[in-house]
Task: inverse folding
């Protein structure tokens, strides 16, 4: 009797397992069609800048008391001292005579179009010239190379301090040296400094899409290839903070003759 009961129990258990397996197989088949499509992740289309005509352009300005350039003593390094005729004058930030604010990163900060954005092949240059970073602000894609150069015949120590990616601290003792580094995650800003020359600082904005620009010496910027839509735009300066605005980019094909979208951003101090 015990053997009969045990045999019956094993048959029932085996049948239950078989039924469970059939259910998983059926569910797996449904994963390709029918209700299972809810679990499928749709691939995003690849972004083609030539397919989009939206342009955002404008001016970032500064109103207020302009910072006086401060004198930087460089006598500790004879090369830097000679290159700057006994010392340089460096302002906390750069304002043109017209009031334009240089070194401001303008980018789409919310409602970014959902595309796959291939990384550009070219690197972004960050040089060290006459013991100063040139330029002081650059922007780059996450995963894109930053080419760091040394044009000076003296030792520079490039110390990057990101919060979202791996940092680095490397010496560049000779003129003509170049190295390429990448940041894997978005961050505005990554601060660069030189431990040998404490007056040297730069800031790198790391973005996960191509819709950004850095204002030039006159405070002007331009971003091309934006799909039509309404976006949140952020202008960020490493010293003055950030400003946020909302803009609508119109489709030139639906609005023939539509000019580029213009944006005016003003920082005060």
Result:
């Amino acid at each position: 009797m015990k053997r009969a009961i045990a045999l019956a129990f094993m048959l029932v258990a085996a049948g239950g397992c078989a039924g469970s397996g059939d259910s998983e197989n059926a569910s797996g088949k449904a994963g390709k069609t029918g209700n299972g499509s809810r679990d499928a992740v749709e691939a995003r289309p690849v972004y083609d800048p030539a397919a989009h005509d939206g342009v955002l352009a404008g001016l970032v300005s500064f109103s207020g008391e302009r910072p006086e350039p401060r004198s930087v003593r460089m006598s500790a390094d004879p090369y830097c001292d000679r290159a700057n005729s006994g010392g340089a004058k460096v302002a906390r930030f750069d304002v043109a005579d017209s009031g334009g604010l240089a070194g401001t990163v303008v980018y789409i900060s919310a409602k970014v179009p959902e595309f796959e954005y291939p990384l550009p092949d070219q690197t972004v240059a960050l040089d060290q010239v006459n013991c100063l970073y040139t330029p002081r602000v650059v922007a780059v894609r996450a995963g894109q190379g930053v080419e760091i150069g040394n044009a000076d015949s003296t030792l520079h120590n490039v110390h990057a301090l990101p919060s979202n990616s791996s940092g680095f601290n490397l010496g560049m003792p000779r003129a003509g040296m170049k190295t390429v580094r990448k940041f894997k995650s978005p961050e505005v800003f990554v601060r660069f400094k030189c431990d040998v020359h404490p007056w040297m600082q730069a800031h790198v904005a790391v973005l996960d899409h191509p819709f950004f620009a850095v204002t030039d010496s006159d405070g002007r910027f331009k971003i091309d290839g934006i799909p039509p839509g309404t976006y949140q735009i952020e202008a960020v300066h490493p010293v003055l903070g950030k400003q946020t605005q909302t803009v609508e980019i119109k489709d030139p094909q639906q609005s023939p003759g539509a000019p580029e979208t213009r944006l005016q951003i003003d920082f005060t101090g």
